[in-house]
Each structure stands twice: as structure tokens, then as C-alpha cells.
Design the sequence.
């Protein structure tokens, strides 16, 4: 089983790539979605988060109140750092164990991992290849405004805080240019996976 990491900046089209990979029938795990599930009551990160932030973040049913918790964490860099220190290792442990299980079951040819901080969080040691989904910054800004609303300036500020294109290129094995029509990206992915068009 080949483990492939998918990364790229905001608006580069990672979600479309993941959707296409799922349509092709491949196994895809998204670190962000996984982190949310690991914060649910009874899951790995839940107790540590409650210990760290207190019961004030819980709703009447004892679940983490996402709205309340988001306000606490994203207004405070230290709190966000504490949350990441709990959640990121839990996500990585889950993925490492999941890869072991999937490898031994021998039912998957490829295992795709998508994570915003794939390179920064040390997934290179887990992945056989890193695919960088690239798109020109102006195209990314247009997509973000069209898809999420808001202004180009708002998203430009987010882009400026993310890693540079050189960083992604230097730490990736494959660059997939997703600036043009998505059919070209699909053809490139099929080529990489040896799928006949």
C-alpha cells in the first residue's frame, strides 16, 4: 500500500482533488475532519481538552460546544497552541495505527492523507510521496471569494500567513498544477495513478 500526502495552500483546490480520488474509489483520510471526531465525547482527545479548558466548554449533554469553544480558542494564540498540542498528536497516532491496519488487511492500493499542516507536522516520515496541489495566487483568491464570500484582501491576508510556494515545492515529490480547468488536474492524477483515460 502506497501512502500519499496531499497538501497545498488555501484555495488551491485540495477538496476537489480529494472528491475526485474518492470518486475513483480510493481511501482518503482528512486530518481536519478526523480531529473533530477525536474531540467527541468518549474519543481520544476529549478528556484532555476538558482537563485543559474546563467544563465551561461543554453543553448540557456533556459534548464540547463548538461555538463556545471556537470563541475561546481562536481569539487566543496560547489557547490555540494548547489545543493543537492535544489534537495534532492524537490525529497522527490515529493515522499511523490506521495505516498499519490497512497495510495488514491488504485491501487498499493507495492511502491518501490530507492535512493543512502535513509537512509541518512531520507526515513526510509517514508518506511515500507528498503531492502539492498548486494554483496561482490570483486564481486561488477568485475561487475563495466565489466559493466562500468575503473579499480578496481577507483571503490574501490568510495566504500571506501560510507557507510559501517554494516551501511546498521543496518538501513535495509531485506538483500538480490546478490553476486551469479541473479536467487537466484529473488527467494528471490518473497519469500518476496509472489509470487509463
Sequence:
Amino acid at each position: 500500500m502506497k501512502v500519499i500526502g496531499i497538501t497545498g495552500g488555501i484555495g488551491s483546490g485540495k477538496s476537489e482533488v480529494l472528491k475526485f480520488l474518492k470518486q475513483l474509489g480510493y481511501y482518503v483520510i482528512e486530518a481536519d475532519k478526523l480531529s473533530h471526531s477525536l474531540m467527541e465525547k468518549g474519543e481520544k482527545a476529549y478528556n484532555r481538552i476538558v482537563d485543559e479548558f474546563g467544563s465551561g466548554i461543554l453543553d448540557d449533554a456533556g459534548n464540547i460546544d463548538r461555538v463556545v469553544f471556537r470563541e475561546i480558542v481562536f481569539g487566543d494564540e496560547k489557547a490555540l497552541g494548547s489545543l493543537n498540542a492535544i489534537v495534532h498528536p492524537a490525529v497522527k497516532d490515529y493515522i499511523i495505527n490506521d495505516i498499519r491496519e490497512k497495510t495488514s488487511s491488504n485491501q487498499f492500493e493507495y492511502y491518501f492523507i490530507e492535512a493543512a499542516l502535513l509537512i509541518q507536522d512531520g507526515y513526510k516520515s509517514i508518506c511515500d510521496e507528498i503531492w502539492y496541489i498548486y494554483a496561482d495566487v490570483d486564481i486561488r483568491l477568485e475561487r475563495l471569494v466565489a466559493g466562500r464570500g468575503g473579499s480578496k484582501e481577507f483571503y490574501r491576508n490568510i495566504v500571506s500567513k501560510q507557507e510559501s510556494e517554494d516551501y511546498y515545492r521543496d518538501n513535495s515529490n509531485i506538483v500538480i498544477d490546478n490553476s486551469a480547468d479541473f479536467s487537466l488536474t484529473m488527467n494528471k492524477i490518473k497519469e500518476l495513478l496509472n489509470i487509463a483515460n
